[in-house]
Design brief:
The protein has nine helices and 17 strands. By secondary structure, the chain is an alpha+beta fold. Among the domains are: about 70 residues, Ubiquitin-like (UB roll); about 60 residues, N-terminal domain of TfIIb; about 90 residues, no CATH class. The strands form six sheets. Strands 2-1-5-3-4 form a five-stranded mixed β-sheet, sandwiched between helices. A three-stranded antiparallel β-sheet has the order 6-7-10. The protein is elongated. About 25% of the residues are buried.
């Protein structure tokens, strides 16, 4: 372990820990915008500058490894003035429309502008990036809010490996771009939305979130993503019973803050009016089983090329549905043998459910005709 002091407080950290990580893990907040715990240090925003005993100039805490006996000062008049100047420069190229911004309350730049008393810039205000890109069904890119922290490009490279975006241009005209500024759908983007997750401002926003309410109005519910068997932790943000967006969270053991495209954007079926909420039995079968009195015949065209409306089904309770399935399954096995039956299970089920299903097929019915949607 390495021993050092932060603002006069003695702490110990593992070798290889940088000063910013050491401070944050010990409850000492050092302002930062470009830093993310799962990404390599960037040092771009310079907000995390700290003073080191015995050294004349401040250094960026995110790129400074903790050393034995190091004495670090995270708050001083000199550092406060430096950070105020940096925030002032950021807002000279950033709209301060916080009252109407969807990121109001969770914007990192807004937080630090408040902390350091920056209500407007002392420099000449000019927006260098005005591009608004609404070129995909997942998220919107509003470049006027971008602060070029580089989190989005780094997560696309280091975590996702897609390398779909990079900072293009130099100086005042720099912006985050796909190759040749193509539409996102024409790049190597896999639409996982992890760039949206790590964006500290409103430059990247999920489409379903825009104009739907302030962050403090939303209810957050954490659960396990149901798309596959990995078991990613997921946080759903909802308002008035409607899901607005999904995100990961740092405490999720399997995935942390990162999700795939299905987990982050594939939840809209939840509120679909055509979603089944109880078992349905086709009316011809329901008539044969005596559940209804009116006879019914299937349309002459194939059920695979024509849609049979919900009105051609009869809702039943779960006990009745299970009895019908068991009876039909048993009749098929008795008439044609166990290999006339096949089973398909799902990655959305738990390992225990899948184990029991294959046991039912192999031992209960006597067939090895079983497959799985993931086939891992």
């Amino acid at each position: 372990m390495i021993s050092l002091t932060l603002d006069g407080r003695a702490i110990q950290v593992q070798p290889g820990t940088n000063v910013l990580q050491a401070a944050l893990s010990n409850g000492i907040h050092i302002p930062h915008l470009c830093h993310h715990p799962d990404l390599r240090p960037s040092g771009g925003c310079r907000l995390c500058m700290v003073e080191i005993g015995g050294r004349p100039n401040p250094a960026a805490a995110c790129g400074l490894l903790a050393e034995e006996g190091m004495a670090v000062t995270t708050q001083s008049e000199r550092l406060t003035e430096m950070r105020r100047e940096i925030i002032d420069l950021f807002v000279s190229d950033h709209p301060l429309r916080c009252v109407t911004c969807d990121k109001n309350g969770v914007c990192a730049l807004q937080r630090y502008a408040y902390d350091y008393g920056i209500s407007e810039t002392s420099f000449d205000f000019e927006l260098s990036r005005t591009l608004y890109q609404d070129d995909n069904p997942m998220f919107v890119r509003d470049h006027q809010y971008c602060i070029l922290c580089g989190r989005c490009t780094r997560v696309c490279d280091e975590i996702v490996g897609a390398n779909a975006i990079e900072i293009s241009g130099r100086g005042f005209v720099s912006h985050v771009a796909t190759p040749f500024d193509w539409a996102m759908s024409d790049s190597t983007c896999v639409f996982c939305g992890n760039c949206v997750q790590v964006c500290p401002v409103a430059a990247l926003m999920p489409r379903g979130r825009i104009g739907m309410g302030r962050e403090w109005e939303l209810e957050h519910v954490r659960t396990i993503c149901g798309y596959c068997g990995v078991g990613c932790g997921i946080d759903y943000a909802a308002k008035d019973g409607k899901i607005l967006y999904a995100q990961g969270f740092p405490e999720a053991v399997v995935n942390g803050e990162f999700l795939c495209v299905k987990g982050r954007f594939g939840w809209d079926f939840v509120g679909n009016p055509e979603r089944l909420t109880r078992p349905l039995v086709r009316r011809d079968l329901a008539h044969r089983l005596g559940l209804i009195d009116d006879p019914f015949s299937l349309p002459e065209e194939s059920v695979f090329t024509s849609r049979i409306g919900v009105e051609n089904f009869v809702p039943v309770d779960w006990e009745t549905a299970v009895d019908i399935v068991a009876g039909q399954l048993l009749g098929t096995v008795e008439a044609h043998g166990p290999d006339a039956v096949a089973g398909l299970t799902s990655a959305r089920c738990t390992n225990e459910d899948n184990y029991l299903f294959q046991k039912l097929m192999r031992v209960g019915i006597g067939t090895n005709n079983i497959d799985h949607c993931a086939r891992l």
